[in-house]
Amino acid sequence: MSREILLNAFHMNCIGHQSHGLWTHPRDTARHYNTLSYWCDLAKTLERGLFDGLFLADVLGVYDVYGNSPDAALRNATQVPVNDPLMLVPAMAMVTEHLGFGVTCTLSYEPPYTFARRMTTLDHLTNGRIGWNIVTGYLNSAAQGMGQQGQESHDRRYEMAEDYMQVVYKLWEGSWEDGAVVEDRSAGIFADPAKVHRVHHDGPFYQLDAMHLCEPSPQRTPLLYQAGASPKGREFAARNAECLFIAATSPEWIKGYVADMRTRAVAAGRRPDDLKIFAICTPVVGATKAEAEAKLADYRCYVRTEGALAQLSGAMGVNLADYDLDTPVSALGNLETDATQTALETLARASGNPYSTIRQMAEFAGIGGRTPIFTGTGADVAEEIISWVDRTGVDGFNLAYAVMPETFEDFVNHVVPELQTRGRYKTAYTPGPLRTKLFGRARLADNHPAAAARTSLKI
Length: 459
What we know:
The protein is of the alpha/beta class and about 450 residues long. The protein has a single domain (about 5-175, about 190-450), classed as TIM Barrel (Alpha-Beta Barrel). It is about 35% helix and about 15% strand. The strands form three sheets. It has an eight-stranded parallel barrel with strand order 1-2-3-4-9-10-11-13, surrounded by five helices. Strands 5-6 form a two-stranded antiparallel sheet.
């Protein structure tokens, strides 16, 4: 039986996410990113299209690697200005019933004690629809903004993340038992102190001696997203993640990644289907193939390659201003940086990339970032999505946008019905929390590392 395809929208609380310069397009409304109506309208559109979630990217710091300056990023609104993504969730939750929210939060600069409270609060307010995209950061400007000289090395950040996860797992899963809240009005007792436990943690990076401040939320631990694809990132994801996000343009590369991650999950004591894996694409939809291609050509007229170069330089940790634009991208493949190592691999090393020089890479990344662009009618795009899912083994897609809200409205109006007609997309939401919708259970599986925090408790 063919698998039902999962879909997230991919956005960020800023003007220019991954389509650099497209905010100047006359139909684009991203300039209104700092209004609640912008986000609530998007959430309602996505729920009408039965999207599983809105995946909100985030970055701390500014892209100042290109030209050793933030000027290019500022000129082009390259993920700056950028507002806090968590603040958007309650408003969008208020106007929807089922849509999930996967929010990127950088653990490197936030104490786990207060972060755990913030996520539990959101899980309560959304009735169990919150997810956390676990990232460690990759910009030195973020570390400097937090009073540090620079960020920790790539692998050390993942070592810190492992210790961080142990703390939040203990808070979410092991501090309050399920029966701790009794709400006995006649006796005047809200919680049974015997069932609320202090968390003791003395790790290599984090120490804690405190109880969790929140009563258990519908999911306890938020749904866990992760996007690491470096060797260290894959090890971390195989142990901790439930949903994986991979950005690459080669189906063959993605197929290998999917197989590797499912094998790693088994080696970590989990099941292959404990992971839901999302690729990424940017859909451009028209009434005819020719109309869609004309729309894409129109979009390309607004691309600012300088903005793309600023973002690519930050992600790769390489000052592309030091290179001639006609330098082969493959020449960058021998570099090692402490930014996102996967960016170097997928941009410079991976086969199937539709560009060969830095100039072509920047032009390509100007629409949707480093994503394949699926162009055509609703039927064409639906068939392309189905083909990639069946060829690679991914469970679904994060959909990037070119123009807001046009990209998502076109997809909901024209692609979703085609996927449904082919029996590859749901026609109604499953009731319950976000994890229930994706995995059939509200709580983390017993084979997840977080389960160790509740082994002595009846929860």
